[in-house]
Amino acid sequence: MLRKYILIFCLSCFPFLSTLSGDFVFDDTEAIINNKDVVSEIWTSTFFNDFWGTNIKSNLSHKSYRPLTTLSFRLNYITSGEALNALHFKITNLFCHSLCCLLLLYVYEVMVKRVQLSNDRIPDISLLAAALFAVHPIHVEAVSGIVGRADILATITFLLSFISYDKSINSIKHSYLFLLSTVIFAGIAMLCKENGITALGYCVIYDIWLKYCYTKKEKHSSKKTFFLVNTKLWKRIAIIFFSAISLLYARWLIMGGMKPEFKPIDNPAAFTSNIFTKVAMYNYIYFLNFLILIWPQWLCYDWSMGCLQLIKDLIDYRIFFIITFNIYGILHLPEILHQSNRGPLSRLLILAVGLLIIPFLPASNILFPVGFVIAERVLYLPSAGYSLLIAIGLRKICSKLNRKKKKAAIAVYVVLILIYSLRSWERALEWQNEYKLFISGLSVCPLNAKIHYNVAKVADAKHNFTWALAEYREAIRLYPDYYQAMNNLANLLKNQRKFTEAELYLRKAISIKEDFPAAWMNLGIVLAHTKRYKESQNAYHNALSYRHNYPDCLYNLGNLYLEVNNTELAAETWLAAINLNPKHTHAWNNLIAMFDNTGQTERALQIIPKALKELPSTPSLLFVIANIFGRINRFQEAEMYFKKAIELFKEKVQAIHYANLGVLYHRWKKYDLAIQMYEQALVIDPLFKSAIKNLALLRK
Known about the structure:
This protein is mainly α. The chain is built from 34 helices and no strands. Helix 1 (2-13) packs parallel to helix 6 (125-135) and helix 27 runs antiparallel to helix 28. The N and C termini lie far apart (88 Å).
């Protein structure tokens, strides 16, 4: 028994180890890095905000209420020494996955026992199913993407709820106590992720099915007798039903009585008015979900924004897959529903099908539209039913084979486990960083505008501007209203001083989404570069009207005031930016440098201690401060800040940094040190004029 659990633990860890050295990727940025609830000292704020840190009752909220998952992120942050250490977060995810696999193995054993199936024969269904679940590549997104912890935690508590319900069925003294714990665990599961509530639905199906099978078998009675002899069953179901209604109503109240609002690009099929297209697309999505469960070769982090084109008529080749998929289901449905008298393996089959379908219902678009097309992590829990189905199938095959062929069948299954493990390892490597992840998406969803947009962002980060420009243009070609891509493309064009084209894209972005503060701010920057200062100022004010607390916009507005020689307004605006963001390096740098350049050295000296308190190890700020101290002959302090700045700049150090330190030594009459600094500057840039000139003066 213990060896089985050790084996499952090892299988659950190995395929995902490669992800531990990775970074925060994709949705992790918004849910963890940019989520104030993760780093806030006020724990209770989590219960008033959604998964992304927005007030749950706000119109802007995604309505994904998962406070317990967010609190687990908060615990990681605290145990990491109040640091956002990706390794600690990923280790926690992997541990939770392993725990989930061990719990699932126990649940499988409970199910096998309840249907009176002998589990001491080879192959062992519970072990085979748990092994497949442990290594399935569909789980990489949930394990390697830290936000996927919501699905893992929901699955763990789903399983605990099921275990409690099973005990309530079979306990005489503590039946209602276990029933209460069932509801509590289901409520906790729902606070980890919304689909956790399906635990109660599955428990009801489990209870009814087993009671129906054994009543029919043992009593040889009619349906009327079934209803009469199972009064305890109906009491349990009534309690579960009212508990589920109460939990859902509480969830509705927490949301402020508002449904989440999604955009057509998130789930195009949900927004189409054509009934044929809607039904066809939903069925095609079900087919794809089942396909990647069977053979998870085509995995992608994002399936929205044109990844799947809408099916508009019967001549679309995808109709063939939909018809085949539905015919297969329709032909097997009657057989599945009449399995109660066909032995324990057949009874287990119904439980496996229920475990596959019921947890998937919230993502099916049947109950309500969802904000995604396909999301691999939502298959984490349903794949428990799929894994059990496969193991049942192998057991049925083996029951008809001789010993030699049975060993061969099991060997094939072991090979499948190995293939899945290797595929999970490969996929986990792609989840190590955003560059690998985004590039991997291109081969699966080349028509997805968001993937091209994300690839452009990583290309920009790697300073491959030609590639970034091409990817942004492709994203806009695929989705002509992609205003975020237009804004980012305009930024690249602005940096290349292509102001006319940049302005064109920014104005188009604003025409699509007028309340787009970033585009208004960037338009202000472009207009300032083309000397249209009045228009630039208006653009900045528009940005601030849509986003009142916008330090970057205030910083750029301050730059505009400096450009038109209104130094007082510039200082006032930069101070406003600093008040909103005390660690705004550029605002501090410009403010101190402006005071120094305009002869207001005393004002600069007054705010330097405040700047150093906020940014004690920011090299650009230290460099500005060093220049001021050097200019007023406070040589020792200037030397200290120059050296510290150069040390912090590391590989980004420039010739001017050494040249200015050389000037300090020059004025300090430490000529040998001055020569060394000028020479060091010329090593970095042999054509640096001031260093050449000053070095020549010293060598006369």
